Amino acid sequence: MDLTLSPTEREFRDAVRGWIETHHPGREPDGDRDAFEFRRAWQRALNDRGWAGLSWPTEYGGAGATLVEQAIFYEEMARAGAPSMANVLGLAMGGPTVIAHGTEEQKQRFLPPILSADEIWCQGFSEPGSGSDLASLKTRAVRNGDEWVVTGQKVWTTFAHEAKWCMLVARTDTDAPKHRGLTYFLMDMDQDGVDVRPLVQITGEAEFNELFIEEARIPDDNIVGGEGNGWPVAITTLMHERAGLAFALQVQVQIVLRELQEQLREAGRADDPVIRQRFAQIYIEAQVLRLNAYRGLTATMKRGAPGPEGSLGKWHWAEVNQSLAELAMDVAGSQALVAEGPWPFRFLRSRANSIEGGTTEILKNIVAERVLGLPRA
Amino acid sequence: MNFDLSDDQRTIKATAREFLSARYPLAEVRRLALDDERGFTDRQWQEMVDLGWPEIAELGTVEMVVVAEELGYACAPTPLQSTWAAGLLGADVGDGRGAVVVDGLSADAGTADVLVDWDGAVVTGASVEPVRALDPTRRWFRVSGGSRDGGGDVEKGRGQAIVMNAAESVGVAARAMDMAVEYAKERKQFDRPIGTYQAVSHACAQMLLEVEGARSVVYWAAWALDYEPETAPLAVACAKAYAGDAGRRVPRAALQVHGGIGFTWEHDLHFFLKRGEANAHAYGDSAAHRERVAVLTGL
Questions:
Q1: Which residues in chain B are contacts of A287 at CB distance < 8 A?
Q2: Which of A28, B143, B145, B178 has the most CB atoms around it within 10 Å of its CB?
Q3: A300-324 burial code (b ≥16 CB/10 A, e <16)
Q4: Chains A, B: CB contacts under 8 A, how many?
């Protein structure tokens, strides 16, 4: 057991820290479009340095970094308050899925523009009638020569309005058992059959979209992992979402926690024993989140792939992040009635944490069945 | 960066698991707890001495914590932890046994050769009276009067004793969880295993969240005590608060999963419930350690 960085890891940390200091682009501009282009430029700068696909194999434009180096990178980015990269879903989920299940041609075709943010990715999994029971999804893909014709509806598609490619899971065999009749496609968003409509959430923002698909076309070559094999490929995407994003998210928690501490002092609540207990408990939970993430990294490095215990981290993160925002609202007292400043937004946004990327209930099922070995209901 | 046990530490863990499960099956835990006046046998103590366990902290805090977790998992009645704690607080225990007095109470004081207080001062000439303990797997005594001599800088030793206690709670929680999961797989109601009901399976998932979280924070603290002393006080407070809570919350939930049988004297679960509860109150409770976290983070 050694929780310190090795000399090489320390060298890498210093390199990242130094580079961010000289290249930090400053504050993100207001407005969705401007903010997005700002993030695209930032990703390109990182990609020129070779760091956009940090953990990807070098033959596909990655840096072949270890998971620990990836963790160091996230921590340094968060520490410096650096903007996030534009192509989050392509980098964290789409790319790793293509690397794991794609053909050589697909890797050559799709991976470089993910890194350069020339082609943004979105995820077409959830449907209005299929949330937690994802495998029940109804979007249909029917073969027509060497292409597929797709009709259906997707929801909660982040970045759909910016995206070139959609990781789309559709039903290609209505006779097969529900998990077996699915296929994983890469759908070109730039066609008449795809209609993107913003979905306004309780914060008043439209971070997500609805996707209406009416006879959209996808060539046979854009199937990932083979026809009828969509479920395991989708699971790869979800495991990467839970393992990869979870690490970045826990770093974010550490930063917000420091802000909360500041706010607590400013509001004159630092002497309130109840507030002190609640703050300390959240601080401890945030440490647990961080330590579990590191233990998970060590385990993943030994095993070679993220495991189902990533579900534990995502579930725990949702709880911690929600209780952070709840405490911030309580600390604000009557000033919490005023929806200005970052906390009311964070409070409202955090309510989605236990739903997005797998509801806490589904994650508990996964932990119970796949980690503890309890019988399925 | 490697957050996992080393090969040597893994060997210590495997040896401890094997030895403790052979020597302390639950029937023996029950016999020692309820029917043995001292709560341990000379042979059991001698075997631990032969394994080198009383001095294991000399190998490192993590090594001691590995054994402490296994002692909790076995719920083994033994004066080993008290002996460790006395030594960590600076007592010259030699080949004998030690005990620590905190708030006038002391585990294993009746069979200890050396008695120290929380400041590391040696206590002599005190009156040592047995009390009926909440946790029957350990003998507790009320210590009064006598004189105190010596003591000094015991900051690190206190941290080690606290983390050792927290590690035991990790083991207690892990065993209670295993018992609950096992029971949830076997016990049938309405013609199916109760583990298929989400009210039960989600309670078990919650146990895993707490057990693994407690394990992470305890090993962090143990490591920090030896290798990153500037972080250690905060890490120790985090570990005791979180693992102390897990050590009682998990057995409570495990009792609920067991239903009526879990509430019987005949079932072994109550030993874990009581050991976890007792640990949570020793060496500062969770609220006290949370307050320490608040102070140490600058609040």
A1: 217, 220, 235, 238
A2: B143
A3: beeeeebeebbbbbbbbbbbbbbbb
A4: 152
Say what angle helices A273-303 and A246-266 make with each other, to 10 degrees: 160
Q: Choose from A254, A261, A287, A323 for mutation: most chain B CBs within 10 A.
A: A287
Q: Is A274 exposed, middle or buried (0-12, 13-18, 19+ CB in 10 A)?
A: exposed
Rounded to two decimals, the ipTM of the complex is: 0.96
Kindly report the length of chain B: 299
What distance in Å separates the CA atoms of residue A127 and residue A130, rounded to the nearest whole number? 5
Residue A192, classed as helix, strand or coil, is: coil
Regions of chain B with pLDDT less than 70: none
Instruction: Please report the sign of the dihedral spanned by the C-alpha atoms of residue A52, residue A54, residue A60, residue A61.
Output: positive
pLDDT at A245 over 70: no
Helical spans, DSSP H, in B24-97 = 26-35, 42-50, 61-74, 80-88
Give residue for tokens 């800088």: B153
A241 is catalytic: yes
Q: Which helix (H) or strand (E) holds A287?
A: helix A273-303
Active-site option among A241, A259, A319, A356 = A241
Q: How many Cα atoms occupy the beta-carbon half-sphere of A60 within 13 Å?
A: 28
The pair of three-digit structure tokens given for residue B69, joined into one six-digit string: 């977790």
Neighbours of A128 (CB within 10 A): 12
Q: How high does pLDDT run on average in chain A?
A: 92
A292 and B212 Cβ atoms separated by less than 8 Å: yes
A130 phi/psi in degrees, rounded to 5: -135, 95
Contact A277 B294 (CB under 8 A): yes
What is the reported pTM?
0.93
Find where tokens 């709880």 sit.
Answer: A319
Residue A70 burial (CB count, 10 A): 18
The residue written with tokens 């050991």 in the block is B275
B216 vs A291, A373, A374: nearest CB: A291
Render pLDDT for A140-193 as a digit per residue (tens, 0 to 9): 999 999 999 999 999 999 899 999 999 999 999 999 999 999 999 999 999 999
Chain A residues within an 8 Å CB radius of B223: 1-3
Residue A246 has pLDDT above 80, yes or no: no
Which of the given ranges, A26-40, A63-77, A243-257, B254-268, has the highest pLDDT on average?
B254-268
Is A63 strand, coil or helix? Answer: coil
Question: Which one of A3, A277, A372 has the shortest CB-CB distance to B204?
Answer: A372
Largest interatomic CA distance in chain B: 65
> In sequence order, what DSSP letters do the residues of A134-153 get, joined into one string?
GGG---EEEEETTEEEEEEE
Of chain B residues 40-99, which have a CB less than 8 A from chain A? 62
Residue B72, SS3 per DSSP: helix
Rounded Cα–Cα distance for residues B268 and B279 (Å): 18
